[in-house]
């Protein structure tokens, strides 16, 4: 006998916080790499930044986020360190960073141990 009853509605969580809340994207940028630092994996994204004073070029910054959201550490970002004539060239320039460069940039923007607010 075939059960023709309608499928039960999936259970949905209506809270906006807690472990069942929908996760917001960490970054709207393009994924560049995943690096390891201090026992954690970090996803690195290239984000476009707006600068109304620079209409003839594109600026980008790097966003570092713990991979998989496995920690309470929020994403950290550099200042706009990549400035090129096009966004494609910003990403091309970011791809030139080697892993040790990315880890050095991450270390430079992470809060020092014991200084978290």
Describe the protein's topology:
Blueprint: E1 30-37, E2 40-49, E3 58-66, E4 76-77, E5 82-84, H1 87-95, H2 99-109
Antiparallel strand pairs: 1-2, 2-3, 3-4, 3-5
Give a written overview of the molecule.
The chain is an alpha+beta fold and 117 residues long. It has a domain at 30-109. Helix content is 17%, strand content 27%. It contains two helices and five strands; from the N terminus they run E-E-E-E-E-H-H. Strands 1, 2, 3, 4 and 5 form a five-stranded antiparallel β-sheet that branches. Mean pLDDT is 81; it is low at 1-17.
- Assembly type: single chain
* Amino- and carboxy-terminal Cα gap: 62 Å
Estimated structural class: alpha+beta
What spatial form do the alpha-carbon principal axes imply?
globular
What characterizes the major β-sheet?
5 strands, antiparallel
Number of strands: 5
Radius of gyration over all CA atoms, rounded: 20 Å
Number of helices in the DSSP assignment: 2
Structure in a nutshell:
With 117 residues, the chain is an alpha+beta fold.
């Amino acid at each position: 006998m075939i059960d023709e009853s309608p499928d039960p509605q999936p259970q949905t969580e209506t809270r906006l916080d807690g472990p069942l809340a929908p996760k917001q994207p960490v970054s709207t940028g393009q994924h560049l790499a995943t690096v390891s630092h201090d026992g954690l994996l970090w996803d690195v994204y290239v984000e476009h930044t707006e600068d109304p004073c620079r209409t003839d070029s594109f600026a980008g910054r790097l966003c570092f986020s713990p991979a998989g959201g496995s920690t309470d550490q929020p994403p950290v970002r550099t200042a706009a360190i990549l400035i090129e004539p096009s966004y494609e060239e910003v990403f091309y320039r970011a791809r030139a960073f080697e892993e040790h460069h990315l880890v050095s940039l991450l270390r430079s923007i992470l809060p020092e141990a014991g200084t978290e607010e």
